[in-house]
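hey
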């Protein structure tokens, strides 16, 4: 369809409304229920930060900017504070990446963490990106 035929309201619905960022996730993750209320609580972010420092900071850096002490990785860890990255992602996608990793990169899946720990990490990762200037 020619996008010029769409009213601005329809475009907003198309681009923002239908969780476009999640449409290419595997079905299991596309349909996972996002605990929105939990993600908003400071406690989840704080627990997530502790987990992040323990498991993730080595590569992603203590402030999640992608500058960890671990060097010589085949691809650079994502800068999770980057507002552009944040715009393209979603809580479901972050959850998916933490569970399954990114194939072919040093980013392994973290199935050793349980679901609630994973959501705490999602809360933390979202909070660092939201703190963009
Ligand atoms: C051994 C190093 C390493 C560790 C440890 C690690 N990561 Fe990663 N991570 C990476 C790399 C490398 C990438 C970039 C992959 C790519 O090229 O997209 C990445 C990418 C990501 C992404 C972004 C993927 C995307 O959608 O673009 C997220 C979110 C992420 N990591 C979260 C975590 C969390 C949370 C932990 C801890 C539980 C963690 N990582 C631990 C190396 C690591």
């Amino acid at each position: 369809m020619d996008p010029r035929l769409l009213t601005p309201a329809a475009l907003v619905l198309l681009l923002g409304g239908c969780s476009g960022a999640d449409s290419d996730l595997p079905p299991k993750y596309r349909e996972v229920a996002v605990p929105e209320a939990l993600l908003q609580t400071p406690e989840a972010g704080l627990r997530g930060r502790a987990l992040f420092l323990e498991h993730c900071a080595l590569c992603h850096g203590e402030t999640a900017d992608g500058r960890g002490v671990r060097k010589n990785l085949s691809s650079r860890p994502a800068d999770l504070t980057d507002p552009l990255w944040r715009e393209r992602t979603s809580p479901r996608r972050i959850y998916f990446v933490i569970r399954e990793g990114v194939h072919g990169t040093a980013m392994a899946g973290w199935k050793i963490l349980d679901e609630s720990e994973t959501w705490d990490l999602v809360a933390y990762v979202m909070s660092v990106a939201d703190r963009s200037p």
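Residues 52, 55-56, 58-60, 70, 73, 75, 77-78, 80, 89, 93-94, 97-98, 102, 105-107, 110, 121, 125 surround heme C (CB under 6 Å). The two ends are 37 Å apart (CA to CA).
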